[in-house]
């Protein structure tokens, strides 16, 4: 049984913690919040035996093996770093940090400490996404020539909200665009060039369009937005067919393989919970085996995704404090 501690009590912490109950060998032992009453309320809701009003106190708990960092983007680095220094394995929400340099420091620290670290890109562990990777690797649609993915939804403009606040790591790319960018990296690797277009509001990217180009001529067209109502779908185009993933592509319950001269091949999944349990099971498996990273979401790939995001943000003119 792997014993977890959860840092923060917001929406994402709530849904991920509820899915931890679906993993037989995962036990949520403790939760921390800046407010002790909130930590106590969260603990009562999820049946967590220990709660703390300061995450440092939770990190001092010797029984906790893995810390799940569910704080806002701007504090990912500090909390994850302190957890690693406390000797805990870490699953950190995406993006792993706001900037590339901090991500590099975290990875270096985890490797030096010989501790597990993974960005919580839960899409990678969805059974249908893993099947898609297998089909692509087996050449079912031929060589991949392009990837198209988007993630956008209209959010009320509120300068005080973290999505619109540069100090909180706001903007569409870090919050939503990380999904299509990571998806493209999963299929095509790191690009040779990144071209961008976008709109800034309050100093953050309200919308962003990325064109990633690869040495073999393949490309990825990706977009994210806080102002537009996007389908949140993805298509992988190959030389012998394509794979269509309907909304929402980051949490697929179905996809279709389309090939000329053949009947469409449909795949589906009856999803239990919210879909986070697959990444929790992966962390448990790797930690119990004494491994320090997941081959399905390796640290070098997390850094490569961060490089793409950092380059895109720089070209858009976004600068975080």
TrEMBL record:
Coiled coil: none annotated. Gene3D superfamilies: Dihydrodipicolinate Reductase, domain 2, NAD(P)-binding Rossmann-like Domain. Residues 3-118 form the Gfo/Idh/MocA-like oxidoreductase N-terminal domain. GO terms for molecular function: nucleotide binding; oxidoreductase activity. Keywords: Oxidoreductase. InterPro entries: Gfo/Idh/MocA-like_OxRdtase_N, Gfo/Idh/MocA_domain, GFO_IDH_MocA-like_dom, NAD(P)-bd_dom_sf. It comes from the Bacteria. The keyword Oxidoreductase applies. Residues 130-244 form the GFO/IDH/MocA-like oxidoreductase domain. Belongs to the Gfo/Idh/MocA family. This is Oxidoreductase. It comes from Kibdelosporangium phytohabitans. The lineage of its organism: Bacteria, Bacillati, Actinomycetota, Actinomycetes, Pseudonocardiales.
């Amino acid at each position: 049984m792997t014993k977890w501690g959860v840092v923060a009590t917001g929406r994402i912490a709530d849904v991920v913690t509820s899915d931890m109950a679906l993993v037989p060998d995962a036990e949520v032992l403790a939760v921390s919040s800046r407010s002790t009453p909130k930590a106590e309320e969260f603990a009562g809701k999820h049946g967590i035996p220990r709660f703390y009003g300061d995450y440092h106190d939770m990190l001092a708990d010797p029984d906790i093996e893995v810390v799940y960092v569910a704080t806002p983007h701007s504090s990912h680095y500090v909390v994850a770093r302190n957890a690693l220094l406390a000797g805990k394995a870490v699953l950190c929400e995406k993006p792993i940090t706001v900037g590339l340099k901090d991500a590099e420091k975290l990875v270096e620290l985890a490797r030096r400490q010989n501790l597990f670290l993974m960005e919580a890109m839960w899409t990678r562990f969805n059974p249908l996404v893993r099947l898609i990777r297998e089909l692509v690797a087996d050449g079912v649609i031929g060589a991949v020539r392009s990837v198209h993915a988007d993630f956008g939804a209209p959010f009320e403009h509120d300068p005080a909200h973290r999505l619109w606040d540069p100090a909180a790591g706001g903007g569409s790319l870090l919050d939503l665009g990380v999904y299509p960018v990571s998806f493209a990296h999963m299929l095509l690797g790191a690009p040779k060039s990144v071209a961008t277009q976008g709109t800034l509001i309050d100093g953050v990217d309200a919308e962003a369009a990325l064109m990633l180009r690869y040495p073999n001529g393949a490309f990825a067209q990706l977009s994210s937005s806080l102002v537009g109502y996007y389908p949140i779908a993805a298509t992988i185009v190959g030389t012998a067919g394509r794979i269509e993933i309907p909304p929402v592509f980051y949490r697929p319950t179905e996809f279709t393989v389309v090939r000329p001269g053949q009947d469409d091949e449909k795949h589906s999944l009856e999803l239990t919970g919210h879909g986070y349990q697959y990444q929790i099971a992966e962390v448990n498996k790797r930690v119990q085996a004494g491994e320090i990273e997941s081959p399905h979401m390796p640290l070098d790939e997390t850094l490569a995704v961060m490089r793409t995001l950092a380059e895109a943000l720089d070209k858009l003119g976004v600068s975080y404090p």
